[in-house]
Amino acid sequence: MLIIPITLGPLDTNCYIVQTGENEAVCIDPAAQSERVLLKDIPEKAAQAGLTIKKILLTHGHFDHTGAAEELKKAYDPEPPIIVSRKDDEMMHGSGSEMKSLAFFAPKLAYNECVPDEYYEFDETGTATVTQGDVTFTVIETPGHTAGSVCILCRDENGQNIMFSGDTLFKDSIGRSDGFSGDTQTLYRSLDRLKALDGNYIIYPGHGESTTLDAERRYNPFLADFV
User: Which structural domains are found in the chain, ordered by start?
Assistant: First the structure.
């Protein structure tokens, strides 16, 4: 499985192109700089790898993860659907969304609303699935950074577990919980859910360098059981 990371925008947001078949991919969190994304980075790098974006998956509704999604969608025919948790819908478009999405963190950047095409359909365990090509992504609810934050899990052809953690979990740290719909105690419960997953995962976070779940279980002060 080819995973192409691209760091974009004023907050150095990690966007990921994830191969799902011979000539196709999904894009996870296409960041905020729509002109740069549309004209250069994501379509160009996907094309260089012989891939066409078929779906746009969002880990949550903050502007730095969603702002280029609409323009990226328009770069393709047919347009790939934008998919997110319904719980983050109101921070992505409509009245008050510029504040709710934290777009004021980048006042010099044009604010771009994002209207989802689909929503993750969660079961009673807070788990949904999205299939594209040869890959089935398991999407788990991990609220706390925002009410609709998710982590996106999959497995590569070698059986390696992979996690796109958005802003829930970073290397040696976690996402903030003081924005719109964030909640610290809820975030801690979500971290417990991640910690309890079976096995190890390669983690691709929304910001910063990649890590592994085993490393975070051992060294991250928000997950580790220090004696």
Answer: 3-219 (3.60.15.10)
| 3-state helix/strand/coil string of 54-83 | EEEECCCCCHHHHCCHHHHHHCCCCCCCEE
The string of pLDDT tens digits covering residues 38-58 is 556 788 889 999 999 999 999
Q: Using CB atoms within 10 A of its CB, is residue 13 exposed (0-12), middle (13-18) or buried (19+)?
A: buried
pLDDT tens-digit readout, 72-116? 999 999 999 999 999 999 999 999 999 999 999 888 888 889 999
Q: In this structure, are strands 52-57 and 3-8 parallel, antiparallel, or unpaired?
A: unpaired
CA distance 136 to 71: 25
Task: Tell me how far apart the alpha carbons of residues 31 and 18 are, in angstroms, rounded to a whole number.
Answer: 15
Cβ proximity of 206 and 29 under 8 Å: yes
CA gap 85, 57 in Å, rounded: 10
User: pTM above 0.70?
Assistant: yes
Cα 180 from Cα 22, distance rounded (Å): 40
**How many CB atoms neighbour CB 47 within 10 A?**
11
Using DSSP bridges, classify how beta strands 150-155 and 161-166 pair: parallel, antiparallel or unpaired.
antiparallel
> What is residue 172's three-state secondary structure?
coil
